[in-house]
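Reopening this one. Same input as before:
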Amino acid sequence: MTKKKVKVGSNTIALNKRARHEYFIEDEIEAGLELQGWEVKSMRAGKANISDSYIIFKNGEAYLFGATIQPLSLASTHVVCDPTRTRKLLLNKRELDNLFGKSSRDGFTIVALSLYWKGPWAKIKIGLAKGKKQHDKRDDIKEREWKVAKERIMKKMRIVDNSPPSRQKCLSTERHFSFFNMKKILIAMNKNTLIIILF
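Same output, byte for byte:
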């Protein structure tokens, strides 16, 4: 009998997609989280949200503030479940000193990037971030749209090598371009204007 393959699920619990849009992430650090039993069960059910969360310092310790973990409907009644409680981060002394120095001295904001499982442990990835200005965000959107448009054009083109016709291998549309001409086309393409020169 053949063994059934066990599908491994994603280890990611929650992502903070807004953080990368709002900030430049300079550095990333992995930290542990001090959790209660009901929070672990809720996280296994995917009921965590870190989109508005950031790190604060209190009494020489780092805490995750603004994260929401919704309790399950089957949670025990003798435990008071606070979905938005401040949770302690598990970091060593050197990491804490480094983070505190960067945030207070260099003006970095420390944001939560992702929450995930690492074996049986819940881990959080935090990032040292600097805020983006409006024009930076617009540039990022332009760059992303340009990349998509460029890939779409490249997919529609047919690229062939300069070998004899019997050995030419076509990859996709109606026009043939040598690699040399292809380079010229790519140089002619611009982020703001799209010029395709056909030879």
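So the earlier flakiness isn't reproducible anymore. For the record, The longest strand covers residues 23-33.
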